[in-house]
């Protein structure tokens, strides 16, 4: 499968990495980087204005982000548009490049005013946020907070330059009042905060313009966006000369009394993703040892399944509970030589028991952890707020602490490896915020492992496919809520097979 068939995996840099690239590229750059950024933003603005005649409002801040806004305003005015520019900063305190951009705007005949002008009759055709860029570290207050509120109230496209003002570029936390963009143009590369936590709700459609730089020539990218281009070599049709043994045995351990459904959901997902056999080891001795809807699934007691040989991959956690029996099963699973996925209560049990933590970190075989923020907090002995304050850092801490592959679930799930490489997933939607979705993810990942995929490939593919399956259902049926976990596995099968045998 040619990689070109899939969207490329875009680079992601934290602020420090972007600053390093700028420092290396800035000397002798022709045209200057600010001119490139402003021109790129103006080109996007013109596309947004294609069928929206009217005046444009540009709000410029006291730093280089404001300088980008001055350049954009100049280009739009040169294109014949009516441009109003608000600037409340001190011209004498502007950085050199931003001061030059302001002077060029004024020399062209543009003007500034220290407040936001009232909207013209019929409203603005476009408002542009060029207030504060990626360096903002504190909440906006006073005048700028009022400006943000007024800009957000405009019923027109709202364009943010580099990042919506008020959003932390590294973490995705909104710092008090925040610009709510319909479109964001990110210069040089993506930043983590655009893609995770509050970022997706505030950035709108994200476009990246490298401003004619090759970022990795100056600084290796620590992060990437997840796309199938990262695992395209695995996307091959099955050979005719194969059988169920060619695709591995996926074993899932869980299903304590009252929670058997979680294990069944995980098992169904593994079956839909093409594991050769799927075996479910239940803790509930009274559970029916068959799935009436999916009789292909094979049931065992949890201890008996853990004792079986020839298993391709184990997963422990869906509906596991936190009994003493469950604790013993987790310990046994950690000692198995196969790739191991730990989810849900398996993670909670590890967090409770230092012996399990040490055994997990000492494993020589692939380990994959799939915590949500609360489970991650228990594993790292901190608060959920600490995890959400820097999701990338938290995922990397988990990966290095346990020498494991980790997905920190949530809006913009973070995948991290033991080598501190990390990725951010952009598939998925809020309709997936419902019970059982994590169990399905565990099943998908385990199926990939059973089929012989590496831990890295299985986690990247499972996480992305999980979100894509949800997106496919919501797009097909116009769903905003009410998506059920059991609907996801058939959709994942459809999406996965479309990767392998695209129709176009």
What does this structure look like?
This protein is of the alpha/beta class. It has two domains: 3-225, 3-Layer(aba) Sandwich (Rossmann fold); 248-499, UDP-N-acetylmuramoyl-L-alanine:D-glutamate ligase (3-Layer(aba) Sandwich). It has helices at 15-25, 33-48, 64-78, 96-107, 142-152, 192-195, 199-203, 215-218, 260-272, 302-307, 324-334, 345-352, 354-361, 373-380, 384-389, 391-402, 437-450, 455-477, 488-500; strands at residues 11-12, 56-60, 83-87, 126-130, 158-161, 183-187, 205-209, 223-225, 249-254, 277-282, 298-301, 313-316, 340-342, 367-369, 405-408, 414-416, 422-424. The strands form two sheets. It has an eleven-stranded mixed β-sheet, with helices on both faces. Strands 3-2-4-5-6-7 form a six-stranded parallel β-sheet, sandwiched between helices. The radius of gyration is 26 Å and the shape is elongated. The mean pLDDT is 96.
What are its keywords?
504 residues, Rossmann fold, 17 strands, six-stranded parallel sheet, eleven-stranded mixed sheet, UDP-N-acetylmuramoyl-L-alanine:D-glutamate ligase, 40% helix
């Amino acid at each position: 499968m040619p990689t070109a068939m899939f969207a490329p995996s875009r680079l992601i840099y934290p602020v420090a990495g972007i600053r390093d690239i700028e420092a290396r590229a800035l000397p002798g750059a022709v045209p200057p980087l600010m001119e490139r950024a402003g021109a790129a933003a103006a080109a996007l603005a013109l596309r947004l204005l294609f069928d929206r005649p009217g005046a444009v409002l540009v709000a410029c801040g006291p730093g280089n982000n404001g300088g980008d806004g001055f350049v954009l305003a100049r280009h739009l005015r040169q294109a014949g548009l009516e441009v109003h520019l608000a600037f409340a900063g001190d011209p004498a305190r502007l950085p050199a490049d931003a001061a030059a951009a302001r002077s060029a705007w004024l020399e062209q005949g543009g003007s500034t005013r220290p407040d936001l002008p009232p909207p013209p009759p019929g409203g603005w055709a476009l408002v542009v946020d060029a207030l504060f860029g990626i360096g903002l570290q504190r909440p906006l207050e006073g005048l700028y907070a009022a400006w943000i509120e007024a800009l957000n109230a405009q019923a027109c496209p709202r364009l943010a330059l580099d990042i919506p003002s008020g959003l932390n570029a590294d973490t995705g936390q909104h710092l008090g009042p925040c610009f709510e963009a319909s479109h964001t143009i990110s210069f040089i590369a993506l930043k983590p905060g655009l893609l995770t936590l509050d970022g997706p709700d505030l950035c709108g459609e994200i476009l990246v313009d490298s401003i004619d730089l090759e970022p990795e020539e100056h600084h290796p990218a620590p992060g990437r966006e997840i796309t199938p281009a990262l695992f395209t070599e695995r996307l091959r049709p099955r050979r005719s000369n194969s059988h169920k043994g060619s695709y591995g045995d996926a074993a899932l351990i869980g299903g304590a009394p009252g929670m058997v459904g979680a294990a069944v959901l995980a098992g169904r997902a593994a079956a839909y993703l093409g594991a050769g056999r799927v075996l479910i080891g239940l803790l509930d001795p009274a559970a029916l040892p068959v799935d009436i809807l999916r009789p292909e699934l094979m049931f065992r007691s949890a201890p008996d399944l853990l004792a079986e040989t020839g298993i391709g991959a184990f997963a422990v956690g869906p509906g596991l509970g936190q009994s003493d029996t469950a604790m013993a099963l987790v310990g046994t699973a950690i000692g198995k030589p196969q790739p191991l996925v730990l989810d849900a209560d398996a993670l909670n049990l590890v967090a409770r028991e230092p012996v399990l933590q040490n055994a997990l970190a000492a494993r020589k075989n692939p380990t994959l952890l799939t915590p949500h923020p609360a489970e991650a907090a228990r594993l790292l002995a901190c608060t959920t707020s600490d995890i959400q304050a820097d999701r990338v850092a938290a995922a990397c801490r988990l990966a290095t602490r346990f020498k494991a592959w980790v997905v920190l679930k949530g809006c913009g799930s973070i995948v991290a490896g033991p080598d501190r490489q990390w990725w951010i997933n952009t598939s998925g939607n809020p309709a997936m915020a419902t019970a059982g979705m994590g169990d399905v993810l565990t099943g998908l990942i385990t199926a990939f492992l059973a089929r012989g995929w590496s831990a890295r490939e299985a986690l990247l593919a499972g996480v992305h496919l999980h979100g894509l399956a949800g997106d496919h259902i919501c797009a097909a049926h116009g769903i905003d809520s009410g998506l059920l976990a059991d609907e996801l596995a058939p959709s994942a099968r459809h999406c996965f097979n479309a990767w392998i045998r695209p129709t176009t």
